[in-house]
Amino acid sequence: MDASAIPSLSAKDYKSHIKPVWCPGCGHFGVLSALTKTLAYLRIPKQDVAVISGIGCSSRIPAYIDCYGFHGVHGRALPVAAGLKAARPDLTVIAAGGDGDGFSIGGNHFLHACRRNMDMTYVVMDNEVYGMTKGQASPTTQPDWSRSKLTPHGTGVRRFQPAAIALAAGASFIARGFAGDPNGLTHLLAQAIGHQGFAFVHVLSPCQTFRPEQKAWKQQVHACQMPPTHDAARAAELIQRDDGMALGVLYAQSLPVYHAALRDAVGLDRIEEEFQL
User: Fold this and answer.
1) CB 189 within 8 A of CB 121
2) Which residues, at least 6 apart from 203, have a Cβ–Cβ distance to it below 8 Å?
């Protein structure tokens, strides 16, 4: 559809009537703001957008956006989103979740979604903690973080590196944003949704309740020192040398996009006939 023929909507028009239940100061408010601004900027009709999530504080986001949405089970946002994109390639499919949901129980799905390279966007709101279950260490938590009662001496386990793993697994678009900069994040999300292929947006989204020290992120984030590259080797060097606080597009490459070969719909009667003895 010609974008000029689509009625102009504001970011507010994309917000549902349901009020977020996130804690005051949660970074996810900034992500919600950026996502609705992005949809308004791209002028995507509400009926052409689907937001798919798993479980966790961040995974509540489909309820707060006035479009199609699916609140799935823990770690399964990506396979549900992939199935939807396969069946309805005309839709703009956005998967959303957190660091625990996406990199722990959903870690295997993350790897294969990257390499499959379907045309969809994955937004991970990373606060380095399991917030909804009251503050346990997540895959991206520092090994010496000792505020959790379950790991009072820290986990002693090296952190999961989202951008590096995404690159190694074959993602064709990798970016990092900050929830405290909704306008900058809007720009990144617009690029991600416009990218042809699997776009991974790693969002630093502070948890004021269980990780109050993350308030310092506002002073620590900085623009990426290198322009976006389509060279995987250069992107790997950038990511490995990075302090984890660089914002912007880290890697963007044009790679073959996976399209499912859909067959004609088959009714249940036809399927039952095949199993009759």
Assistant:
1) yes
2) 27, 31, 123, 124, 125, 126, 176, 177, 178, 179, 185
The CA dihedral of 69, 32, 259, 269, to the nearest 10 degrees, is -10
Nearest to 155 by CA among 163, 164, 146: 146
Handedness of CA 222, 223, 225, 230 (dihedral sign): positive
Task: Report the alpha-carbon distance of residue 46 to residue 248 in Å, rounded.
Answer: 27
CB-CB contact of 127 with 213 (8 Å): no
pLDDT in tens, 125-172: 999 999 998 899 999 999 999 888 888 999 999 999 999 999 999 999
Residues in the chain: 277
Q: Which domains does the chain have, with CATH numbers?
A: 20-274 (3.40.50.970)
3-state secondary structure of 17: coil
| Average confidence score pLDDT of the chain | 93
